[in-house]
Each structure stands twice: as structure tokens, then as C-alpha cells.
Specification:
- The protein is mainly alpha-helical.
- Helix content is about 65%, strand content about 5%.
- The strands form 2 sheets. A 6-stranded antiparallel beta sheet has the order 4-3-2-1-8-9, with helices on one face. A 3-stranded antiparallel beta sheet has the order 5-7-6.
- Strand 1 and strand 2 (about 10) form a beta hairpin.
- The longest helix is centred in the N-terminal third of the chain and has 22 residues, at about 160-180.
């Protein structure tokens, strides 16, 4: 089988890549990579599948694979930015997306994928029937007038199925190219003809992440409608979603001046709500997010009956989110409940879903994680039913965070995988970075370090401004890369001036500090000198604000030889995590506490801590690598052969590509005969 695209040709059987008939010199790995992607163009080829194809074994990192893909792109005139031929399906693999035609054994070209690469017409073909082409405008730019002739020739030669298939392809090409060549203004005009309210269709497109269609639709609105409050709000929302914050700020300032001059309190309030959202998106302090939202609600309340339930609901929803950012959870809950009810009263189910989502986030931060998770899953299901990928991604990303906090790694993998799939239909934005990093964290917690590392490398290359540095720090710790973890955690600590105590998955200042302390202790355990904390870190260690801060302080005291004080800090952190129903934090507190107790020879106390931890949620702890590793350490210290046997097998199965600690493996090997197990070493682990 041979394949053609543009000026290139690939003969798979001969292993030959040519350009304009001239041989293109590439390595075997690059040729195998191109060949496999081309042959499987109809689907995304997973990382592991491509690695097995190119290297014939699996002990290869995704970074090495990315280098081969980069070389393949260069060989065929593609690059990682445009991705005209080889597209990166983030978190999944790669797919051939370029125009492509196959040449079969009869040397007849058959389009394999894209309509731009239809085969040439044979010289002896009959004249084309104009039944299809006569309906095509002369300036449509369609380059396939001879294809019906090919189909007729095949039909008369007995190849009737092939002829029918080609006719269907030509019809599809004509339809596609007519749409492609249709003026943008005509396509955009469908917004004004498919509904009585043209802005409603634009809002629908914005919900679905169809940003280019919204831009074109706004550009073609009639002048009076284009200058309306709804249209201006939509412009701000579009700029914010596309990350164009400076442009949104300029437009907002201009409209605020006009609204004040018109003395229109409702318009002013809506602009203030938009300002609050923009301030939140650009990472401004909580007070700068809350102040305009507070003033917006006050203006609307003073306007009385002139305010519709929908506008008041939107303003209350914005203030509720701002109050949540300020950690004022009780008033936030009140605003969001009112907003939800008003929006439902107005028939705005989608904005009501946003209020419900925010309400779930309040529950999440006040310890009602299970309730919040159930709400997020329901909202995601509604978004899926409405075919709203943007809302579904937001809900599933939040669900992923909660599932990780609850140590439900399998569920987190499923949620994050769905978000990654949805991202293929949503333009690049901050959501892409967030989705990829959450997927990387779910993979890390499940021991799939190779895929996690590849995703984090992509984020690094794509969007360093919006990335979270605590997630790379967690990945480096799981990979045994203490120095890299230390650097990432230090940078995260330095960049985070706030310390939201309620944030999940260590994404706050104290979370970065704890990760730094764990990395520092890992370095010391491996014979390297313990790094000294900076003055800012030392100050934070002296004044912990949450259970995470107490764990970090406990680790610092332990490293300074103050084990009794460290024990008290760990116990306090464990109690606080239990009170707020945070299994992730409970495990983070239990790990150093149990290790400290075992170090002191107090195995009975360590067993009590482990039993207390397991009693909280045994089902999910059974599927967590770190919880099982703790159980193995305690079983080895207690000399419980049955427990050693069971926990080692479970820990080894859950480790994935993580290496079990050398001291644990050594202790197990010494204990294995008594446990009825063979001498097993940790040779199955792959280097990340």
C-alpha cells in the first residue's frame, strides 16, 4: 500500500518516503512512526501503542516518543504549532489529520481522509456527467469536476460498489467546499435567521466554546443591536474566555463611562458584575473581586421592581462567587441559593446550573465533599445532555479535584479522561492547561508516570503562565526526582501570595511549603544535605494556618530533631483533616506520624493511627498506593506475616511506574520466607 499527501509519497512495504519523487532520508524510527500514523489515520494512536510500534518494547518515555514525532514532523514539512499533518491529542496520543490518498494494488487512487486530495482523472475516462457539478457556482473553488467521470468508468467496468462510494465522496466534498467557500458574513447570518433573538444564538455558541462563531456573529449584528447591553456583555465574556484580558478591560472602562453618563443603574450593575469576573480571572486579590460585585447587587436592590429576576440572579451569583473567594462561605451560600432560585424562575436553566456549581464548590470547601461531588456529576450530566462541552469540562474538572481529595483515583482517571476528550472540541484556553494538569495529577496518583510526565511537558511548552506548579512538584516526588520537586515547590511558594486554606490538592501557599519540606526530607534521606528554608518559608513554618501548614511544620521540627513537638503537629493536623472530611489530608498527616512512631519503636501507636485512618473510608484506602505502603511498613515492623504478604502484593500492584522505597523492599525480601513468599525484588518498576 502506498500513500500520497501533497508532494510526499510513502511506500509502506518498501519502507520509502519520497518528496517530488526524491528519497527523503529519515531514521527507521521516524519512518515507522509516520507509517503507523498514516495507516491508522482514522483514529488517535495512543502513546503506548506508538512506542511499541517504533521501539518494539515499552520501556521508553513519552519524552523520547515526542522527539521522534518532532523529527517526523520536520521530515514532512509539519511542525508542532500548526500541526497540519500530525496532531497532538493531548493526554491520548497522536493522529494523522492531513489530506491523504491511498494507492491500492490496482493503482487506483482512493481518498483516505481529507477532501482536498482527490485522485486525478484517468486520461481514458468518459466525459463527466454534469449532474453534480452544474449545481456548483463557477467561483466555488472546487477542484473535482472529473470525479463523476471516474465513477462512471468504474461502474461500466463492473466496479459498481467502488463507483457508488466515490459518488458519495464527491457529494461530501461538494457540500464541504461550498460551506468552506461561503462568505463568513453569510455563515454568521444564520444567527439572525434561526431564532427570533440573534443574541440568544450567540450566547448558545459561547456556552459551547464556539468562539470564532461568536466573534463573526457579533461583527455582523445590526448597529442598534450591536450597541446593546447584552451584546457588549457578550463581547466582554468572549474576550475573557479567550484570555484577552487587556482588551476586555479597555472595553469595560469605556462602557462604564457611558453607563454613568446615562445614569442607568441596571447597566452599571451589570458592568460591575463583569468587572468582578474579570478581576477574578486575572488573579486579583479577593477584595478587588468582591467590591464591584457587592456594589452591583446594591445598585440593583436600589432599583427595585425595574430589575428582572434574571439580572438579579446573575449579580447574586457573581457576588456569591466573590464571597467564596474571600472564604465567607455562609453569606456565599445564601447568595447562591437565591441566585439559583431566581434564575430558575426566569427559565435560565444554564445560569442556574452555574449557581448550583458554585454552591457545590462552597460545600466542597466546607467539608461536604460527597455532596459537592454528587452535585458536580449531576451538572456534568446536564451539560452533556445540552451538548455544552465548556460547562461539562468545568464540572468534570471540579469532580476530578474532589475525587482526588477523596482518594478515588479510578473515578478521577475516568473524569479527567472525559475532560480531555471534550477539550478536542473546545478552543485553546486556560481550561486546556487546567484539564491537562488535573489529568496528569490523576495519572500520577495512579502510578502512570510516563503519561503524566508527557502531559506536564506539553503544558510547560504551551502555557507557562497559567500552569500550577504544585502539580509538577507532586509528579516529581512520585517519580523520585526530589531536586526537581524542590525547585517546583519553591517557585510555587514564591508565586502564591495568598493562602486559601480550603483549596484542594495542595494548591495554596502552605501546600507548596509542604511539598518543599517533603522534597527536602527526601534529599536528606538519600545522603544529601538538607536545604535550608528561605526567610519567608521559615516564617510560614512558624505560623501554620491549616492542617497542611501543621504537617509542614511537623516535618520541619522532625528534621531539627524535635520529634515530640513534630508528633503533636501531625496529630493536630490529622484531627483537623478528619473534622473537615479530607481523606487526602488525613493521609498526608498519617504518613509522617506513622513513620515517626515506627522510628521511635512505638509500633502499637503506629497501628492505632493506621486503624483510625482506615476506619474513615476503607473501600477507597484499599485502592491507594500510599495507604497500602503505610500498611506494609506497619506490618513489617509488627512482624505480621499474613499482613506483610497481603499488603506487599497490593502495594506492588498499585505502584504502577513508581519505585517502592529501597528500605521497604529490603525489609520485605528479608521477611519473605517467613511470609510464605519467594524472594521478590522490585525489578518490575519502570523508570519514569
Amino acid at each position: 500500500m502506498r500513500y500520497h499527501w501533497g508532494e510526499y509519497s510513502l511506500n509502506r512495504e518498501a519502507g520509502l518516503l519520497t518528496r517530488h519523487g526524491e528519497h527523503v532520508e529519515v531514521s527507521r524510527k521516524v519512518l515507522d512512526c509516520i507509517s503507523h500514523l498514516v495507516a491508522n489515520h482514522e483514529r488517535v494512536v495512543g502513546y503506548d501503542e506508538l512506542i511499541r510500534t517504533v521501539w518494539r518494547h515499552e520501556n521508553v518515555s513519552n519524552h523520547q516518543l515526542a522527539q521522534v514525532v518532532l523529527a517526523a514532523r520536520r521530515a514532512i514539512g509539519d511542525d508542532g504549532q500548526s500541526q497540519r499533518l500530525i496532531r497532538t491529542a493531548s493526554g491520548l496520543g497522536y493522529q494523522w489529520v492531513g489530506a491523504l490518498s491511498e494507492v491500492n494494488d490496482e493503482c487506483v487512487a482512493v481518498p483516505a481522509q481529507a477532501p482536498d486530495a482527490l485522485p486525478p482523472v484517468p486520461a481514458n475516462a468518459v466525459e463527466p456527467s454534469s449532474e453534480i457539478s452544474r449545481h456548483v457556482p463557477a467561483d466555488a473553488g472546487i477542484q473535482a469536476p472529473g470525479q463523476p467521470a471516474v465513477a462512471i468508468a468504474w461502474y461500466h467496468s463492473g466496479k459498481r460498489h467502488t463507483a457508488a462510494a466515490l459518488i458519495l465522496i464527491v457529494v461530501a466534498v461538494v457540500s464541504w467546499q461550498l460551506h468552506k467557500t461561503e462568505p463568513a458574513s453569510v455563515r454568521a447570518s444564520t444567527f439572525t435567521t434561526t431564532t427570533g433573538d440573534p443574541l440568544a444564538r450567540l450566547k448558545e455558541a459561547l456556552w459551547k466554546g464556539q468562539y470564532e462563531e461568536v466573534r463573526e456573529g457579533l461583527a455582523t449584528l445590526p448597529a442598534p443591536l450591536a450597541d446593546s447591553a447584552d451584546a457588549r456583555i457578550l463581547e466582554f465574556q468572549l474576550d475573557i474566555e479567550r484570555g484577552r484580558f487587556e482588551r476586555a478591560e479597555e472595553k469595560l472602562a469605556l462602557q462604564q463611562t457611558r453607563a454613568k453618563a446615562a445614569a442607568d443603574p441596571v447597566w452599571q450593575a451589570r458592568l460591575l458584575a463583569a468587572q468582578s469576573i474579570l478581576n477574578a480571572k486575572t488573579g486579583r486579590p479577593a477584595q478587588e473581586v468582591l467590591a464591584p460585585a457587592q456594589l452591583a447587587v446594591e445598585l440593583l436592590e436600589s432599583a427595585g421592581d425595574a430589575v428582572s429576576p434574571q439580572i438579579m440572579g446573575e449579580a447574586l451569583s457573581t457576588r456569591g462567587n466573590a464571597l467564596m473567594k474571600s472564604s465567607q462561605f455562609e453569606p456565599a451560600m445564601g447568595d447562591l441559593v437565591r441566585a439559583r432560585d431566581l434564575l430558575l424562575q426566569a427559565g435560565d436553566n444554564r445560569r442556574a446550573a452555574i449557581a448550583r456549581s458554585s454552591l457545590a464548590r462552597v460545600w466542597m470547601r466546607t467539608g461536604r465533599l460527597a455532596d459537592a461531588l454528587g452535585q458536580m456529576i449531576e451538572i456534568a450530566a446536564v451539560a452533556k445532555r445540552y451538548q455544552d462541552p465548556v460547562a461539562e469540562i468545568a464540572s468534570r474538572n471540579t469532580a476530578t479535584k474532589i475525587q482526588i481529595e477523596l482518594l478515588r483515583w479510578r473515578d478521577a482517571l475516568a473524569s479527567s479522561q472525559r475532560s480531555m476528550q471534550l477539550m478536542q472540541s473546545v478552543p485553546d484556553s486556560a481550561r486546556r492547561t487546567r484539564t491537562m494538569q488535573l489529568r496528569a495529577l490523576a495519572l500520577t496518583g495512579s502510578g502512570q508516570l510516563r503519561e503524566a510526565g508527557s502531559l506536564l511537558e506539553e503544558v510547560d511548552a504551551m502555557d507557562k503562565e497559567r500552569r500550577s506548579l504544585t502539580i509538577p512538584a507532586m509528579y516529581h516526588l512520585a517519580s523520585g526526582q526530589a531536586e526537581q520537586a524542590l525547585a517546583a515547590a519553591a517557585e510555587a511558594f514564591g508565586e502564591d501570595d495568598t493562602n486559601d486554606k480550603t483549596n484542594l490538592i495542595l494548591e495554596n501557599r502552605e501546600g507548596a511549603l509542604l511539598l518543599w519540606m517533603i522534597a527536602a526530607q527526601d534529599l536528606a534521606a538519600n545522603g544529601k544535605s538538607m536545604p535550608a528554608p528561605s526567610p519567608a518559608q521559615r516564617k510560614a513554618l512558624q505560623q501554620p494556618e491549616s492542617s497542611i501548614g501543621h504537617i509542614a511544620r511537623g516535618r520541619w521540627l522532625w528534621s531539627q530533631g524535635q520529634s515530640q513537638d513534630a508528633k503533636a503537629e501531625f496529630q493536630l493536623a490529622l484531627e483537623q483533616a478528619q473534622q473537615t472530611n479530607r481523606p487526602f489530608r488525613m493521609l498526608l498527616a498519617s504518613e509522617p506520624l506513622i513513620e515517626l512512631l515506627l522510628q521511635r519503636g512505638d509500633t502499637a501507636a503506629a497501628e492505632q493511627v493506621l486503624a483510625k485512618l482506615r476506619a474513615h473510608d476503607p473501600e477507597w484506602l484499599d485502592h491507594d498506593y500510599h495507604a497500602n505502603l503505610l500498611g506494609l511498613k506497619v506490618a513489617l515492623a509488627a512482624g505480621d506475616d499474613a499482613a506483610v504478604k497481603a499488603t506487599y502484593r497490593n502495594t506492588h500492584a498499585l505502584a504502577g511506574q513508581r519505585r517502592l522505597p529501597e528500605d521497604v523492599v529490603k525489609a520485605y525480601v528479608q521477611r519473605a520466607p517467613q511470609a510464605g513468599e519467594p524472594h521478590i525484588t522490585d525489578t518490575a518498576r519502570l523508570s519514569p
